[in-house]
Amino acid sequence: MLTTKKSSLQKRFLEHETTQIYIRIVFALSFLAILYYLYFDTTQEWQFLHQHSFGAYMAVPLFIVAYNIIYYIFLKKSPFVYQKERLVVTIFIDTFLTAYVMYLIGPISAYYAGVFLWFSVAYGMRYGKDIAYIAYAAVLFAWAVLMQSSPFWLEERAVSIGWLITFTVLPLYNFKLLEVLHKNVEKLHEMADLSKHMATHDRLTDLKNRYAFDEELHHYIDNYYHKGEKFALFFIDLDAFKAINDKYGHDIGDRVLKEAATRIQKVITNSYRLGGDEFVAIASYRSNEELQNLAQNLLFNLTMPCKNGEIPLGASIGISRYPDDGESEFEIKKRADQAMYRAKQNGKNRFFFYSEVA
Questions:
Q1: Which residues touch 65 (CB under 8 Å, ≥6 apart)?
Q2: Higher pLDDT, 159 or 198
Q3: Average pLDDT for residues 75-85, to the nearest whole number?
Q4: Residue 122 CA to chain centroid, in angstroms?
Q5: In this structure, what are the phi and psi dihedrals at residue 68, rounded to the nearest 5 degrees?
Q6: Residue 204 lies in a domain
Q7: For 234-247, what is the mean pLDDT?
Q8: Buried b vs exposed e over 199-227: b needs ≥16 C-beta within 10 Å?
Q9: Residue 290's CB: how many other CB atoms inside 10 A?
């Protein structure tokens, strides 16, 4: 469950990262439009813009757009590589580029001071307490640099100190709320992950269940038509399992089922329990020799006794190949089942391919 939790958390982070990319690009393009239309404004408030080259103002938002396009391409190719590290880098890029833009636009930067508060709060809301504290430190540092370098904020010392106090105090209250919120959110996600796991897995053996088998068999067939990858379907029925239950009791019978499930999965990863003592497995293969070896290994594992050799275990296995033995889900399942029954009829503890019984 820890791996599932981590993966779920990474996926949520990825969704937030993608959303932030869109927000940054829209914000940068909007800022470009504002600069373009207001650079030539004649009111006194905007005259500050004329003290610098128009290209200097345009460079930063253009860089933001280019950076986020590259960022988006990277996410598509390597969504979970260095995820936390790139979040930290993005925090510093966001805060210091914002501070630099505010330095360039002088008095107009008064309209954008609240963006720093949004950085402190939003990063925490999206990514949790650890990232929130990094954003908090970056904001305070960037604002301190701006206070000491911007002529406008040097002149408006009282206002800049007031904002510094706001950036220092207000997020601290928010962080405590975030801590409680994220704990509750994580619990909800854990419950959702557990519910999803229980819906697709057998409770006794923890193998995937019939529902998951039907879904994944469909995907295997789709994959064949896209990539040409052949696969085989193994129907597995434990021999004399009722006798084990009758002789040793259902508790021991459950242990035998768990042991059988473990042995099947060691040979074929994609294994499922259909119910009772019936199992099924799906394996891709390249040659008939490879498939034959796989079947032999599976049978060998399932015919070794359980519980220090006290309880004999056996299995009858039927194997059908896609698309050689059928081109639909119904056909491939029916023919593996027919091959398994032939193995039962021929003395059990053996496997048959459908092509041998057709």
A1: 25, 28, 29
A2: 159
A3: 88
A4: 22
A5: -75, -30
A6: no
A7: 89
A8: ebbbeebebbbeebbeeebeebbeebeee
A9: 13
153 and 17 part of one domain: yes
How many domains are contained in the chain? 2
Angle at 34 between CA 28 and CA 40, to 5 degrees: 140
Domain end: 173, 198, 223, which one?
198
Q: Residue 231 belongs to what H/E stretch?
A: strand 231-238
Q: Lowest mean pLDDT of 244-248, 259-263, 333-337, name the range.
A: 244-248
Is 203 among the domain residues? no
* 335, 300 Cβ separation under 8 angstroms: no
In whole angstroms, what separates CA 137 from the centre of its chain? 29
Report the alpha-carbon angle 17-22-25, nearest 5.
Answer: 120
User: 283-318 pLDDT, tens per residue?
Assistant: 999 888 999 999 999 999 998 888 666 788 889 999
> For position 303, which CATH number holds?
3.30.70.270
Give buried/exposed letters for 92-113 (b at 16+ CB in 10 A, else e): ebbbebbbbbbbbbbbbbbeeb
Beta bridge partners of 283: 232
The residue assigned the tokens 């079947």 is: 295
In angstroms, the CA 273 to CA 283 distance is 15
Q: Which domain holds residue 277?
A: 210-357
Whether residue 186 sits in one domain with residue 74: yes
242's tokens: 């009722």
Residues 38 and 181 in one domain: yes
State the DSSP H helix or E strand holding residue 235, giving kind and residue range, or none if neither.
Answer: strand 231-238
Give the strand pairing for 271-275 and 278-284. Answer: antiparallel
In a domain, 163, yes or no: yes
Q: So what's the pLDDT on residue 5?
A: 44
- Considering the domain architecture, whether residues 189 and 221 belong to the same structural domain is answered as no
The answer to whether position 314 is within a domain reads: yes
Average pLDDT score over residue span 243-260:
89
CA 149 distance to own-chain centroid: 43
Using the 3D structure, point to which of 178, 198, 218 is the last residue of a domain. Answer: 198
Closest by Cα among 24, 129, 133, 12 to 71? 24
